[in-house]
Amino acid sequence: MRAEGNGAHAKRDGVNRYEPVMNRLIHRLNHSLERNFPEQRVFLRSDEGTRFVIVTPLTQVTGWFVSAAFVAWAIIATAVLMMDSIGSGSIRDQAMRDQVFYEDRLQKLAAERDSSAREALAAQSRFAQAMDRISAMQSELLASEQARVEFETGLTAIQKKLGTAVVARDEARAMLDTVLAEARETGAPLPGDDVPTGADASVAFLTNALETTAAERDAQAAEAAEAEEFAENLIFEQRLRDERNDQIFRQLEDAVTVSLEPLDKMFEASGMSTNEILDTVKRGYSGQGGPLMPLVISTKDSEIDADTARANEILDALDRMNLYRIAAEKLPFGMPVKSSFRYTSGFGMRWGRLHAGTDMAGPVGSPIYASADGVVVEAGWVSGYGRLIKIKHEFGVETRYGHLSAIKVSKGQRVSRGERIGDMGNSGRSTGPHLHYEIRVGGNPIDPMIYIKAARNVF
Q: In angstroms, how far is CA 44 from the centroid of its own chain?
C-alpha cells in the first residue's frame, strides 16, 4: 500500500513539475503577443449579475489563424468550383461544335457519295450504250464486208463478160475484113455496086452477113460501153463504201477506246497483273459464244487487206472488253454496303497492330452484299470478328465480312456479286455497329479502298 502511495505521489509530482513550465511558456507567448493583440474582456450580462471572459493574446491569434484558414479554404474551394464549371462549359461547347462539324462533314460525304453513285450509274449507262452502239456497228461492218465481197465477185464476172465481148468484137471485125478482102480478090461487087442479075443471091447473102456482123459488133460495143459504165459506177460505189467503212471503223475504234480506257485503269489500279488475269480468264472461258473470232476472208496469193486488219483489231478489243467483264465479276470490285454508311477506320496500323481492313459504320441490320463471285469457305463465329463470312474468289483472292448481326449463307455455298450474304451488326470485338471488310490476295491483307476506288469510275 505504501509503494502504491509513493508511486501515485511521484506521478502527481511529475504533473506538477510540468504544469509550471507550460504556464510559463503560455505566459511568455501572451506577453510577446500583447503588444499587437492586447488582452480583451468579453462581458456577459444577465439578471443574476455580470460576468466577463478574458480573451488572451494567444487565443486571439489562434482565432485569427483559424478564421484566415477558413477564408482561404473558402476562396480556394470557390475558385476550384468556378474553374470546373468553366471547364465543363468549354468542353460542352467544344463537343457541340465538334458535333455540328461532324454532322456537316457527314452531310457533305453523303452528298459526295450520292454524286459518285449518280456518276457511276451514268458511266454504266454510257458503257451500256457504247456496247449497244458497238454491237450495231459491228453488225453493219459485217454486212458491209459481205456486200464488198459480193461486189468484188460481181465486178470480176462483169470484167470477164466484158473481155469476152471485146474478143467477140475483134473476131467480128477480123471476119468482116476477111470477107471484104475475098470479095475484092474474086471481083465480086460490094454492097452499093451494080451487079449482074445472076449474082443477086451471092450479093444478098454477103449483104446480110455484113449487116448481121455489124449489128453484132454494135451490140457488143454497146454492151462493152454499158459494162464500162457499170464498172465505173461500181468503182464509185466502192469508193463511197470504203469511206463509209472508214467512218464506221473510226467510230468503232473511238467507242472501243472510250470503253476500254476505264477498264484498263481499274485493273491496273488493283495492283494485279492484267495480262495474267486476262490469260487466266481466257483459259477458263466457258460462257456462251466464246471469245470473238477474227474475220477470215480468202487471201489466196495475197495478204490481209487493211479493212480486215482493222476489223480484227476491233474484234480483239471487244474480246478484251468481254474478258474484262468476266474478270470484273470474279474480282471484288463491288461495294459490300450499298445503303447509307460512313467510313470510320481505314487500313493500316492502329493501337500498335495492323488493322487489316476497312470499317463501314451504319445501322444494325443494313444489308451486306458479296463484292464478287465466289464460294463461301467460312460462315460462323470467329473470336474477335464475331459473326464472320469468308468468301474465296478467283486468282487467289479472299474477302472477309466481320461483326455481322446475321449470316444468310452457309459454308460451301456459291454466291454471285451483289448477292445479299448477311446483315451489319456489332458482334465480336467492336465498339459500335459496323462492317469490317477485308481483301486478301495470296493470304496477305491489302487495302480494300484500292479496289473500291478503282471501280468507282466503272460501276
A: 96
User: Would you give the DSSP letter of residue 366?
Assistant: -
User: Which residues are paired to 369 by β-bridges?
Assistant: 420
Taking the complete model, does pTM exceed 0.90, yes or no? no
Q: In terms of residue numbers, what domain contains 383?
A: 342-454
Cell of 19: 504544469
CA 261 to the chain's CA centroid? 13
CA-to-CA distance for 183 and 404, rounded, in angstroms?
Answer: 114
Cα–Cα distance measured from residue 386 to residue 390, given in angstroms and rounded to the nearest whole number: 12
Residue 198 lies inside a defined structural domain of this protein: no
Residues 209-225: tens digit of each pLDDT: 667 766 776 777 777 77
Domains identified in the chain, total number: 1
Question: Distance (Å, rounded) from C-alpha 181 to C-alpha 159?
Answer: 33
Taking Cα atoms as reference points, which of 332, 302, 336, 300 lies closest to residue 455?
332
Q: Residue 421's domain is classified under what CATH number?
A: 2.70.70.10
Cell match 482565432: residue?
63
Asked, for residue 85, whether it belongs to a domain, the answer is no
Cell of 13: 509530482
| CA 231-233-238 angle, 5° bins | 90
3-state DSSP helix/strand/coil percent for the chain, to nearest 5? 60, 15, 25
d(CA 343, CA 109): 10
The amino acid present at 110, given as its one-letter code, is A
129 in any annotated domain = no
Distance separating the N- and C-terminal Cα atoms of the chain: 113
Contact between residue 307 and residue 145 where contact means Cβ atoms under 8 Å apart? yes
**What φ, ψ does residue 388 adopt, rounded to 5°?**
-130, 145
Cell of 445: 491483307
Backbone angles phi, psi at 326, to 5 degrees: -65, -45
Residue type, 328: A
Distance CA 207, CA 215 (A): 12
What confidence tens digit (pLDDT) does each residue in 100-142 have?
Answer: 887 888 888 888 878 877 877 777 777 777 777 777 777 777 7
Q: Is residue 165 within a helix (H) or strand (E), and if so which, with residue range?
A: helix 57-186
Does any domain span residue 384?
yes
